[in-house]
Amino acid sequence: ELCDNLRMTTIPQNAFQGMNNESLTLKLYKNGFEDIHSHAFNGTKLNQLILKDNKNLRRIHNEALRGAIGPDVLDISSTALESLPSYGLEAIQVLNATSSYSLKRLPPLDKFSSLLEAALTYPSHCCAFRNLRTEKQNSLLSIFDNFSKECESTMTRPTNEIFYNTSLWSAEKNTYLFATGEETSPYSYSAIFDDGEVTGFDFEYDFCQPKILTCTPEPDAFNPCEDILGYSFLRVLIWFINILAIAGNFTVLLVLITSHYKLTVPRFLMCNLSFADFCMGLYLLLIASVDAQTSGQYYNHAIDWQTGSGCSTAGFFTVFASELSVYTLTVITIERWHTITYAMQLDRKLRLRHAVPIMLGGWIFSILIAALPLLGVSSYMKVSICLPMDIETGLSQAYILLILVLNVVAFIVICACYIKIYIAVQNPELVAANKDTKVAKRMAILIFTDFTCMAPISFFAISAAFKVPLITVTNSKILLVLFYPVNSCANPFLYAIFTKAFRRDFFLLMSKLGCCKSRAELYRMNYFSAYTSNCKNSNSATAPSKASQALLLLSALEK
């Protein structure tokens, strides 16, 4: 026993050589160890190696246990170790690594061939041993498939008979192992194993009643034993969705920013919406990339990912993008309603000088909401998909509910405005029937995409915020991929790409690059023709009717 010696900073080579050959229990806790050298325990027969509470111990050399027998028990709890040695772990039956927060990765699992009990720091590491246990059980079952009936009869025998048959079978096993000629084991072990592999093997207790590895802490509902995306089909789908979101919104941003036409309020708002949805695409790309890199071994990357800057960045992107997108959609809808309602009052028209401060407020709000989990209000580290799902404190719960309620209110406002717009344009004095139908269909599509995106997520999230979850984290990943980014994929098409004005700007931009020149010229001629026609109509009509101006306005909104 060696403890409370802060002056000892290393354990050198052959430090314990020459001690007796009996099994040793080395208690080396609460010292100043920083490093354990190669062959430090050479020549010893270790039963227990206790290194707990060495707060400065950061490194054990890969060959530190070279030349030693054992240990059966290794305790490295409350140390600063970042990795375990790659040699000498095969004999360990009990591993204690609690409060070892720097130990974020485990060595190859086949090194723990004798491990029966593990007390670790992170639940994700227990997932590794759970998968290992399953693999071992499956291999045993495949080898011993013919012995299942023998196990059933074993479990129904009296205890004393089991012990009797165990010793008898062991004697028979030894006899048959060294037999020659036609003598073979009644269980055909000689056909499966080499002689050395069955030494010490007990049929009833090693196969029929196998030892099960126990590991703590168990994974919780927020971090199940699975990869980031869980389902294989989501792994494929998320790449298609994030590429669509990134490509669509980047194209819209590029065309609107490079357009030589005047920056109007709708164009300005569309730029903001495209940027928000572009950020959502970046979030999905980040999640998809990390999932692809850690597939099958997420347990070894979970801590670095969820506690690192990558997950915090992804979480910030998704909350910022989501809130700015919802905010901008609401402003766009209100602007459309305001334009139609006050079409005849030009002094009440929304100008760019009004839109800029409105959107500045949206940016500040979105940044603040996205930054709160980084400041301790909820957390992005709770789940692998980096959403703020931490509701342990009242403040965190209020934060989640605030976001959800604001999103629901925004959806209600959007629906109310589109209903009012539809009622306005349905008036036969204002617009023709075919125009009415076309506008109604577009509004229905806009509302449907908003509802598809917000409704399922809001419903399940509100129930979870009240600590009555109706869906598991695994299933919530389906919502993340299939419903959460619906708006980010649909918005660039519904609000820009499918409009005449965007197509005109797109072909004009392509003509500058030497492509589609004839198509660009056609759009340019149509634009000036429409502009000249509108000017003539304005000059010839001293008192234009409300219907003609509203029709002109609706045509402009649809471009």
**Helix share bin:** 55-70%
Strands ordered across the widest β-sheet = 2-4-6-7-8-9
Low-confidence stretches: 159-193, 195-205, 538-559
Question: Helix tally?
Answer: 16
Count the domains: 2
Distance between the termini: 83 Å
The name of the CATH superfamily of the largest domain reads Rhodopsin 7-helix transmembrane proteins
Q: What spatial form do the alpha-carbon principal axes imply? A: elongated
CATH architecture of the largest domain: Up-down Bundle
Order of helices and strands: EEEEEEEEHHHHEHHHHHHHHHHHH
Key terms for this structure?
Leucine-rich repeat, LRR (right-handed beta-alpha superhelix), 2 domains, 16 helices, 559 residues, Rhopdopsin 7-helix transmembrane proteins, mainly alpha, 5% strand
Description:
One of its GO terms (biological process) is ovarian follicle development. By secondary structure, the chain is mainly α. It has 2 domains: 1-145 and 212-219, Leucine-rich repeat, LRR (right-handed beta-alpha superhelix), CATH 3.80.10.10; 232-498, Rhodopsin 7-helix transmembrane proteins (Rhopdopsin 7-helix transmembrane proteins, Up-down Bundle), CATH 1.20.1070. The chain is built from 16 helices and 9 strands. It has helices at 123-143, 148-155, 159-177, 203-208, 232-258, 265-294, 302-307, 309-341, 352-371, 394-426, 433-465, 473-482, 486-497, 500-512, 517-540, 546-558, and strands at 10-11, 24-27, 35-36, 46-50, 59-60, 73-75, 94-96, 117-119, 214-216. The strands form 2 sheets. The chain has a 6-stranded parallel beta sheet, covered by helices on one side. Strands 1-3-5 form a 3-stranded parallel beta sheet, with no helix packed on it. Helix 5 packs across helix 14 (500-512). The longest helix is centred in the middle third of the chain and has 33 residues, at 309-341.
